[in-house]
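Quick start: what a row looks like.
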Amino acid sequence: GVDKGTSLALIAERYGIGTDEILAVGDADNDIGMLRAAGVGVAVRNAKPHVQEAARWVTERTNNEGGVAEAVRRWALG
């Protein structure tokens, strides 16, 4: 019952923020819970198809092309 999603919720509670205020970026199976738990769940372009389906958004770039930076610029700094 422990995964990145439950950990994200515990950390949010500890710091007094809502999970809806959290941006999470991932590309692998172990990121699915985190992507679903975060208010802004983003998969990078080269994530597995089922990981992309779990995310709310998908970057235009892969993790090797600055996909995480793209996610931060687009969804956190907007």
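That is the whole record. The first strand starts at residue 23 and ends at 26. The CA atoms of residues 35 and 57 lie 10 Å apart.
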